[in-house]
Amino acid sequence: MHSFLIGLQFLTRIRLVNQTEWTAEDFGRSTRFFPLVGLVLGICYASAAWLLVYTKGLFGMQALPTALLLILPLVLTGGLHADGFMDTADGVFSGRERERKLEIMKDSRVGSFGVVSFVLLMFVQFSLLFDMHPLLLVPALFVMPIIGRLAMVLAVSCFPYARKDGVGKTFADMGDRRTVVIAALTTTALVLPWGTLAAAALVLGTAFALLFCSAMTKILGGVTGDVYGAATVLTETLVLAVFSLASTHPNVWGILWK
Prior knowledge:
Number of strands: 0
Strand content: under 5%
Mean pLDDT: 88
Largest sheet: none
Structural class: mainly alpha
Helix content: over 70%
């Protein structure tokens, strides 16, 4: 429980208990509980989606509820993963040598590549949410953060850390096969009850996270804390894409929604 609360406090702005004393072991062990952190976020996102879907019909608005659903993850996570995504974009797209890319990613300032990439990502996510069938919004937003946190666990545990030190290395040092198994079983138990469409999102999200981190390892010589964040938000976007694309074929998702 202690490690879960540490993970919740680190990855979100949600404070069930204010943790002030963290050991490196507790910090690293929290990795296996990341999907449970995703569960907490998923409950918040799905509840907001349920509320906004019904108020949308009441007030006749479409774009505003979608924008609020887009903003909510940034508020609840403090933009942590979005910051990692932007830093990764700055480094990877800089065209510099590996060491210089890592230096750029470590810089707290956001560059033009990061800003442009994030704006484009927000446009894509907005479009996916806007086009999604209302009946799929709740399950999509429930499983999205859970699968996204599994992607982070895979990045932490299955790939070498690119730097000699850093906050992310604390997680990487504790990431092992047991961590992956616990996180994978937890994610599977939470996602599969939502049907075949959710299962498809889980499979595709897992495959994407592994391919993305493999590509980053080739470019950077490993992964970093910023890559953890990038893997999370990109995997979440893929999950939204699965549900949104299914929305355009009601006969298909009607069969999968079982």
